[in-house]
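Good day; I would like, with your permission, to put a structural problem before you. A protein sequence and the structure tokens that stand for its backbone fold form the material at issue. I would ask you to consider whether the tokens describe a fold that such a sequence might reasonably adopt. I set the record out below, with my sincere thanks for your time.
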Amino acid sequence: MRLVQQIFDATVTRFGAARWSVQQRGDVPTGAPLDTIAEEDVDQIMAVNVKGTWLCLGKEVHVMERQGLDAIVNVSSIGGLRGSPGMGAYQATKHAVIGLTRTAAHDFGPIGIR
């Protein structure tokens, strides 16, 4: 969380504002059936793909709500819309990113953040 805060603090300090943000990072594990994925691998994928997106959304909103109209783009993948063999953990995280994005639109649209 500190790293995310540092990134947004540095952005506002350098540019005076954060008018938009794009989350595109994703951790892709080697393919494995759901019953063989190590718990540690699932934790890592969730931390990067879901928690990372959630942390950025929280910080972005606090910066952007003070500035007026702004935009946030979260990049998922086709994996967020369907299933594929051996990609269960990854695709679960991409479904979660889509859910976070849709919820953010409802929560923050009324305050001018697209």
User: Anything to note?
Assistant: The CA atoms of residues 17 and 67 lie 7 Å apart.
